[in-house]
Amino acid sequence: MNDFDYLGEGEVYLDAACQSLRPRPVIEALEKYYVKHNSCGERVKYEWGKITDSLVEETREKVLKFLKLSPRKYTTSFTLNTTYGINLILSQIDAKHFDKIMTSEIEHNSPFLASLAFSERTGLPREVMKRNEDGSIEISDYDFTKAIVVVNCAANFDGRKLLNIKEYCKAIHKAGGILIIDAAQAMAHSSDILKGVEVDAICFSAHKMYAPSLGVIVWRDDLLRYLEPLWLGGGMVDDVEKEKFVLSAENKEHRYTRFESGLQAWGEIVALGEAIDWLEHLPKKDWQNLEKNTEEIYEFLNSSPKVHLINKKPNPTMSFYVEGLDSHLLGEALSRENIMARTGYFCVHYYLDHVLGLPPLIRFSFGVHNRPEDVEKIKMVMKNVI
User: Fold this and answer.
1) Which of 43, 131, 194, 337 has the most CB atoms around its CB within 10 Å?
2) Following DSSP, what letter does each residue of 113-181 receive, concatenated?
3) What is the pLDDT of residues 353-379, one digit of tens each?
4) Last residue of a domain, one of 248, 279, 310
């Protein structure tokens, strides 16, 4: 498609689960910030700053609209990435309100390690839940009483989803717990699973949804009652005296400042707004092309005797290993053919290595930038390798 016209002939990018390519309109939006209204948001009165403030506020609103969440209940704050967002929330939660912290076995290291660190720091017990092959969790198997639950809604190695997320959220809230969702792998291609689900916080990375490098926290305003203001800095206060201060977040209009210390990545925030617009207006044929490419490669890999595919069904993100062949060597061989794919455990060491006992894997993660000729080239090169 024309929005990715900078891709050279024969270049096949298969690492969208790490960071997606950026379409031309997003790149142009970021460039426009730097050359047309480069300014500090929320701090200046000159015209460039007013333009920046307006576009940043629009992006906050677009994020909530995209997720179908009410601005009366939710706030959008910007951070560095998903890992940073999850840690930022957990570092400020007062443990006295809760009895334990829970995560699941298929988590990226972001929630897995953050929950482990929280447990070690606070002394609260930690529980690692099992996930079904389809990504769901057996709600009746667990006690969520006063629990902090941190899990993904889409896995980063095979895309399996938390299919019963609505029922799961209700069960946690009924038991007096809170639910923090790692949505890094869902926002680009599986956001429907999240829309309208009133979890307590959603953390995601804009750079996995065709936007610049940026982190986002969408959080329920009620979460404030569990937080201690331990992380403070510029842009977070309305007044400071020698021994006290007034948090800007006390005002609903500036509640987002609760997680925004210091100067923000204004250009990246503006470009995220453009990425959301771009995603929502993407032609149906482009989604159909992604689905077709995904299904074709899934069938190809699944029908190859030497290929051990982790996926149980097609997904834009799929992981596998080839019998008798080191995945890192395979990654290098693909690279020599201009096919760019990730190898290793993809920051899911516990589940892939220690639970399943798998060797390092190779991951193909597709995006809407991929072309039919990419699929043909992958099949041809893989056939030669296998």
Assistant:
1) 194
2) HHHHHHHHHH---EEEE---TTS---GGG---TTEEEEEESB-TTT--B-TTHHHHHHHHHHTT-EEEE
3) 999 999 999 999 999 999 999 999 999
4) 279
SS in 3 state form for 311-355? CCCCCCEEEEEECCCCHHHHHHHHHHCCEEEEEECCCCHHHHHHH
* End-of-domain residue from the set 279, 308, 326: 279
203 class by beta-carbon count within 10 Å (0-12 exposed, 13-18 middle, 19+ buried) = buried
User: Once rounded to an integer, what is the mean pLDDT over residues 126-153?
Assistant: 98
pLDDT in tens, 273-306: 999 999 999 999 999 999 999 999 999 999 999 9
Q: Are strands 100-104 and 74-79 parallel, antiparallel or unpaired?
A: unpaired
Domain shared by 269 and 202, yes or no: yes
Q: Which domain holds residue 290?
A: 2-21+284-385
**CATH code for the domain in which residue 310 is found:** 3.90.1150.10
Over residues 185-232, the pLDDT tens digits come to: 999 999 999 999 999 999 999 999 999 999 999 999 999 999 998 888
Number of domains in the chain: 2
Tokens of 61: 């609103």
Euclidean distance between CA atoms 29 and 200, whole angstroms: 31
Residue 26 lies in a domain: no
How far is C-alpha 175 from the geometric centre of its chain's CA atoms?
26
1, pLDDT greater than 80? no
